[in-house]
């Protein structure tokens, strides 16, 4: 649209005078800001050789433009105080009514735009995105000014947050102008001005207002601020009473006094404290950043691209500047001219090169660094120095004022006043949603400080450390200290930045620091410290660093328990060569710890730690865990209904999402690692953006039963998501994430489908079902290609159920492995022939299988807590991975095959180094064992995982004797000193007596028909007593084979005890699951007493050392004390809430300890049956027992002051107080019994994964 003719004539008439007087560059700045000329057009004018030529070129350009350009040119003349030139042009402004319009105008949008242009309101930016919530807030505040002729509205926020654009857009509303401000909108840009410049601004405004009046009303310009204030008051109250004055970019409250003229005012500022300087002011805060969608919209508009087609650098730019409207607009404008520089400007932003992120004069500052500096320059000198100290903060970290009290050595009240000043000037932000006010910097502010003070970084961090050391010279910050969390989290960071390496070494390699930081923050931040600062350590300290890192990686799950474990005790289990162990032993022997119980493993060489990292991310079973494709992250989900993502190196949590309403059964990464998919028992499938932790899409309509598994294609080119469910027919679906419904449904299974998996080339999808088959579908057509009938290979009858749990493809796509029952079957994909049948001898099912994408390894997860690695080429097992304490639900190799992760119902995820597991040669032992203590000598007998009986020297680990592998499982063993022999009992009832150390077979005792459960030698080793699941007890003269059979029990006899050690007392006490206790004479075989003791099975029995009483415990939750004279029940002890599994008398026979299946231990008085103490503690979560499992064994110390117990772990208790003294956490769990040396200094046990522990008290 061309200029109106009268407007064109006016411009031509004044052309010569304009060319003589104007400075084109000053005027073009305003016109570019209004968007009426482009940068290219400005450049064509600017390159003219003289100012007069430039002016002529600008006039020529204007004559080719439209009315908006002319109005912008006129406003520029007024703003630059060319009043004499502006006045003649005013009469010919487009759309102006000359009969004293005084605010009357057409209701069209054009008239609104003309009014705003006349008032100097900036044009909408060329690239503009709306912020409706903020816009509505400002308009609501302006609406209220109708009733308040002297009201103020403030829009405040940090530099570059978009305050001016928001204010201009708020008044770009026809209804608002008609109803509230029909006399006009008048915009005045203020900035940082002295009095003379401010006077010029007000003169310009008065001139503009008077132009709307008749010529008699026009006066000479005011010559002082006081006169200007009165002139403005008159004009606003008398001539334009229903108008709005907008003051843009106010810095100082003194400026507001000049405009305190009882008119309606909207102002923008960085200084929120201005709201307190004028009464009746309401305010709107502008957030420092746009959300990602709007920020990306700006970049898309500038570059004329579809938002979805923006390169990945676009999101990184938005993320780096936290969506700052200024930065996004500056970079967008730069990219408009140079669209191939995405990576360049992202690098400039990351490298804090703010000077290179500059644009034309559409903003008051030429570059971003100038905008930042302007805010700081208005601070007093002393406060400017204090603000510099904030350079040491980290991004996205909020700190309490207490940190700065330490740093600045000031009282809290002084610090709070200074911080409030920073906040008021939008130099700092405050989060007052918590108990404490927490302060933080915007990323751009922090980047600017770092860039400005780059040469002082080291000294600034040194100041932090020195102030910390001074303030906490007496003691480290305690739990009541508001700054404690910050110091624990960031002290190592400050030390490293200050290059105070010796102090950093001393701190990081201190168990006291490990204890303090892990107790507050968990182990992951500590591991991160060792990984981050390891490279800057010298070789010696680097080795120490790796030792501390390994210690935390393997014990991190214990450090997340409550009550918090003893770090010294955990560290005593480290190898003797480790600096962690040496420091722990030094602390254990320190006089300050005198009397405290510490125990160290004396057989460490026989214990191999195969896990690289153990993580405890969820409360409840973990059903699924997976590596990201780049290997840096792990996602997990389970019974807790949550999805978590954490670092694979340290276990540090990155994201936690309450993902579903019910258990989350599976999670999987997209090929580019940007997305995560989850599926659940709630029948929903969800897709999440990992970086933002936001839900992108929910598929909830099509699956009618729980969704068991989900998996993305292996490649991103044609991204699809496969899901499978318990639906009877429509149970396998393919989803395109851009569509609300499934793309295809695969038909073929009529039973629940447990698992689905794409072939490496994404051509096929394998599905594993409860119908006993694995089906292969063509992905492109969704047609069934072939069926592998797994059931036919495992079942001889059609009536038998064979549930195929999962399937996995080899890396070449030529073989597929299926898991069902206790087997993994390998099939040729083309022919469906079975190539390999991996059947384990485990009494458990294969829960999951995964083929390594980089090698021939196959990992199998079992319900009996184990993991096996098989070599598919060599067709043999390569390794056992032991450590989990419950069903292993899933295993997965990393993409490069170097690591394997596993997740379990024991609430942990374990990471294994594949090569380390391969080279393991650990032999595991069974828990049924016997131990002989002879001075310093410790001899242990137990069966191993190959069903051989081993007799070991406990101290050295050397094998003194090892039997041949036996055909029937060894279930019990017992040793005799004289003669030196060992006996073993098998599941078929056979008993063998072998000489030590030769292993010569001395006797084979046949008679029992079922598993032999317990042995005891007596009468100088000449007699052997055995009990069995066949309900009998046999008394053998084992050398001759003579045998007496004690019959009478109706169920298995798990144990028995001689009533006396005396050779003259031949009475034997036996107990059984049948609830009875029987007394026998082993010489005659006569049954002396038959006592119906309990309603339920008897689980344990113990005879008091003084032989006066014996105690029985039962599944009926009671304990009973019996007289050895009358055989009558003396007391029935009640209180346990679960089966009472173990009992033990103190050596003085005055107390009885009992332990139940909930992990609770009670100590009773034998004298009157009263309860003395309950040994318990807060459990780590609601599903865990106090003892980590059943209390299976109990022993008192010789002085009766300490009690040791076994369950999920070993605990020592103070008998008098009932308090825990120490805890030892084995690698496994479910300890059956503990063997205790006579002096109570040595303890021997074996866990459920076969590791032998010999613990010696540190003294």
Keywords:
four-stranded antiparallel beta sheet; 1259 residues; 33 helices; 27% helix; alpha+beta; Rossmann fold; Death Domain, Fas; Helicase, Ruva Protein, domain 3; elongated
Helix coverage percent of residues?
25-40%
Gyration radius over CA: 41 Å
The CATH class label of the domain at 611-759 and 850-919 is Mainly Beta
Major beta sheet summary: 5 strands, parallel
Find the structural class using helix and strand composition. Answer: alpha+beta
CATH superfamily of the domain at 611-759 and 850-919: YVTN repeat-like/Quinoprotein amine dehydrogenase
Assembly state here? single chain
User: The CATH topology of the domain at 611-759 and 850-919 is what?
Assistant: Methylamine Dehydrogenase, Chain H
In the CATH classification, which architecture of the domain at 611-759 and 850-919 applies?
Answer: 7 Propeller
Low-confidence stretches: 96-107, 1179-1183
Shape: elongated
Beta-strand proportion: 25-35%
In whole angstroms, the N-to-C terminal distance is: 97 Å
The tally of strands reads 68
InterPro entries: Apaf-1, APAF1_C, Apaf_helical, CARD, DEATH-like_dom_sf, NB-ARC, P-loop_NTPase, WD40/YVTN_repeat-like_dom_sf
GO molecular function: ADP binding; ATP binding
WD repeats: 657-698, 746-787, 881-922, 1005-1046, 1046-1090, 1091-1132, 1133-1174
Domain CARD: 3-93
Q: Your description of this structure?
A:
The longest helix is centred in the middle third of the chain and has 21 residues, at 539-559. The chain is of the alpha+beta class. The strands form 17 sheets. The protein has a five-stranded parallel β-sheet, sandwiched between helices. Strand 54 (1098-1103) and strand 55 form a beta hairpin. It is built from 33 helices and 68 strands. It starts with a helix and ends with a strand. Among the domains are: 5-91, Death Domain, Fas (Orthogonal Bundle), CATH 1.10.533.10; 114-209 and 221-286, P-loop containing nucleotide triphosphate hydrolases (Rossmann fold); 292-368, Helicase, Ruva Protein, domain 3 (Orthogonal Bundle), CATH 1.10.8.430; 611-759 and 850-919, Methylamine Dehydrogenase, Chain H; 760-839, Lipocalin (Beta Barrel), CATH 2.40.128.630. Helix 3 (24-33) runs antiparallel to helix 4 and helix 12 (195-211) packs parallel to helix 13.
């Amino acid at each position: 649209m061309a200029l109106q003719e009268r407007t064109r004539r006016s411009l031509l008439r004044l052309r010569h005078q304009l060319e003589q007087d104007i400075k084109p560059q000053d005027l073009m700045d305003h016109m570019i800001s209004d968007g009426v000329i482009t940068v290219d057009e400005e450049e064509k004018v600017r390159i003219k050789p003289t100012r007069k030529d430039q002016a002529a070129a600008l006039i020529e350009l204007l004559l080719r433009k439209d009315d908006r350009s002319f109005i912008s040119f006129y406003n520029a003349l007024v703003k630059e105080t060319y009043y004499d030139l502006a006045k003649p042009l005013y009469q010919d402004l487009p759309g102006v009514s000359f009969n004293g319009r005084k605010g009357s105008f057409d209701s069209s949008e054009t008239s609104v735009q003309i009014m705003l242009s006349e008032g100097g309101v900036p044009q909408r930016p060329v690239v503009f995105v709306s912020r409706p919530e903020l816009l509505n807030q400002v308009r609501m505040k302006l609406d209220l000014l109708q009733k308040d002729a002297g009201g103020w509205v403030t829009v405040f926020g940090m530099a570059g947050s978009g305050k001016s654009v928001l204010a201009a857009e708020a008044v770009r509303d026809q209804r608002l102008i008609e109803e509230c401000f029909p006399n006009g909108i008048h915009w005045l840009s203020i900035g940082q001005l002295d009095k003379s410049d401010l006077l010029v601004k007000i003169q310009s405004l008065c001139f503009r207002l008077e132009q709307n009046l008749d010529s008699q009303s026009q006066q000479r310009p005011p010559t002082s601020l006081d006169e200007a204030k009165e002139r403005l008051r008159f004009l606003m109250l008398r001539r334009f009473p229903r108008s709005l004055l907008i003051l843009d970019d106010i810095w100082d409250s003194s400026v507001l006094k000049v405009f305190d003229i009882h008119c309606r005012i909207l102002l923008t500022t960085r200084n929120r404290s201005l709201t307190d300087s004028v009464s009746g002011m309401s305010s709107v805060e502008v957030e420092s950043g746009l959300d990602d969608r709007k920020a990306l919209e700006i970049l898309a508009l500038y570059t004329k691209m579809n938002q979805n087609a923006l390169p990945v650098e676009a999101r990184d730019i938005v993320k780096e500047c936290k969506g700052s409207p200024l930065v996004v607009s500056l970079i967008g404008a730069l990219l408009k001219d140079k669209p191939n520089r995405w990576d360049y400007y992202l690098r400039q932003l990351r490298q804090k090169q703010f000077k290179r992120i500059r644009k034309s004069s559409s903003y008051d500052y030429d570059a971003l660094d100038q905008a930042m500096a302007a805010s700081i320059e208005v601070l007093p000198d002393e406060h400017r120095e204090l603000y510099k100290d904030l350079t040491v903060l980290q991004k996205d970290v909020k700190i309490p004022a207490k940190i700065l009290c330490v740093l600045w050595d000031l009282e809290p009240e002084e610090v709070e006043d200074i911080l409030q000043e920073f906040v008021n000037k939008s130099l700092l932000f405050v989060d007052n949603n918590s108990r404490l006010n927490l302060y933080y910097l915007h990323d751009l502010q922090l980047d600017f400080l770092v860039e400005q003070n780059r040469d002082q970084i080291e000294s600034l961090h040194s100041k932090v450390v020195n102030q910390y050391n001074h303030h906490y010279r007496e003691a480290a910050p305690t739990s009541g200290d508001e700054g404690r969390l910050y110091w624990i989290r960031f002290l190592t960071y400050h030390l490293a930045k200050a290059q105070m390496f010796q102090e950093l070494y001393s701190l990081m390699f201190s168990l006291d620091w490990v204890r303090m930081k892990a107790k507050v923050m968990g182990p992951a931040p500590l591991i991160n410290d060792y990984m981050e600062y390891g490279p800057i350590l010298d070789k010696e300290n680097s080795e120490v660093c790796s030792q501390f890192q390994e210690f935390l990686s393997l014990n991190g799950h214990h450090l997340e328990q409550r009550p918090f474990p003893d770090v010294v005790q955990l560290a005593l289990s480290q190898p003797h060569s480790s600096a962690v162990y040496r420091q722990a032993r030094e602390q254990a022997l320190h006089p300050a710890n005198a009397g405290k119980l510490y125990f160290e493993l004396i057989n460490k060489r026989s214990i191999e730690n195969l896990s690289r990292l153990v993580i405890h991310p969820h409360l409840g079973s973990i059903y699924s865990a997976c590596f990201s494709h780049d290997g840096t992250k792990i996602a997990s989900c389970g019974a807790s209904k949550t999805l978590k993502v954490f670092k694979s190196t340290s276990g540090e949590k990155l994201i936690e999402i309450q993902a579903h309403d019910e258990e989350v059964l599976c999670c999987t990464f997209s090929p580019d690692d940007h997305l995560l998919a989850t599926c659940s028992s709630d029948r929903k499938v969800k897709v999440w953006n990992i970086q933002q932790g936001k839900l992108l899409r929910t598929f909830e309509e099509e699956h009618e039963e729980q969704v068991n598994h989900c998996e993305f294609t292996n490649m991103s080119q044609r991204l699809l998501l496969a899901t499978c469910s318990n639906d009877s027919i429509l149970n396998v679906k393919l989803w395109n994430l851009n569509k609300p419904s499934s793309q295809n449904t695969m038909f073929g299974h009529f039973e629940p489908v447990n698992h689905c998996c794409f072939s490496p080339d994404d051509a096929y999808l394998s599905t594993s079902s409860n119908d006993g088959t694995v089906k292969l579908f063509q992905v492109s057509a969704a047609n069934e290609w072939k069926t592998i009938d797994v059931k036919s290979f495992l079942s001889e009858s059609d009536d038998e159920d064979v549930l195929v749990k999962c399937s996995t493809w080899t890396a070449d796509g030529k073989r597929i492995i299926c898991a069902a029952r206790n087997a993994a079957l390998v099939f040729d994909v083309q022919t469906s022939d079975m190539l390999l049948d991996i059947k384990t001898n485990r009494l458990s099912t294969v829960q999951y299988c995964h083929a390594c994408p980089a090698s021939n390894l196959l990992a199998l997860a079992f319900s009996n807590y184990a993991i096996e690695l098989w070599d598919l080429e060599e067709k043999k097992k390569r390794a056992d991975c032991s450590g989990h304490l419950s069903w292993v639900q899933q295993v997965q190799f990393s993409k490069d095959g170097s690591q394997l992760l596993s997740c379990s119902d024991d609430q942990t995820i374990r990471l294994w180094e594949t090569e380390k597991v391969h080279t393991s040669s650990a032999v595991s032992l069974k828990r049924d064992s016997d131990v002989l203590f002879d001075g310093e000598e410790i001899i242990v007998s137990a069966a191993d995982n190959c069903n051989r009986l081993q007799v070991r020297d406990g101290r050295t680990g050397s094998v003194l004797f090892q039997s041949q592998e036996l055909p029937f499982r060894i279930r019990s063993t017992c040793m005799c000193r004289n003669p030196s022999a060992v006996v073993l009992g098998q599941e078929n009832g056979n008993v063998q007596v072998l000489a030590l150390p030769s292993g010569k077979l001395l006797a084979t005792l046949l008679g029992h028909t079922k598993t032999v459960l317990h042995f005891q030698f007596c009468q100088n080793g000449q007699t052997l007593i055995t009990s069995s699941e066949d309900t009998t007890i046999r008394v053998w003269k084992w050398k001759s084979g003579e045998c007496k059979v004690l019959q009478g029990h109706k169920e298995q006899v798990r144990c028995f005890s001689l009533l006396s050690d005396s050779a003259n007392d031949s009475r034997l006490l036996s107990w059984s699951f049948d609830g009875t206790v029987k007394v026998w004479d082993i010489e005659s075989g006569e049954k002396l007493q038959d006592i119906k003791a309990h309603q339920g099975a008897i689980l344990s029995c113990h005879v008091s050392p003084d032989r006066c009483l014996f105690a029985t415990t039962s599944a009926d939750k009671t304990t009973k004390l019996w007289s050895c004279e009358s055989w009558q029940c003396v007391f029935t002890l009640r209180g346990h809430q679960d089966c009472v599994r173990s009992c033990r008398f103190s050596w003085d026979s005055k107390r009885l300890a009992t332990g139940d299946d909930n992990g609770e231990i009670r100590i009773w008085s034998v004298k009157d049956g009263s309860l003395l103490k309950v040994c318990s503690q807060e459990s780590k979560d609601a599903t865990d027992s106090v003892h980590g499992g059943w209390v299976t064994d109990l022993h008192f110390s010789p002085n009766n002051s300490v009690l040791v117990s076994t369950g999920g772990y070993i605990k020592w208790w103070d008998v008098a107080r009932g308090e825990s003294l120490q805890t030892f956490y084995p690698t496994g769990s479910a300890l059956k019994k503990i063997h205790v040396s006579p002096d109570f200094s040595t303890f021997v046990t074996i866990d459920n994964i076969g590791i032998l522990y010999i613990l010696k008290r540190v003294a």
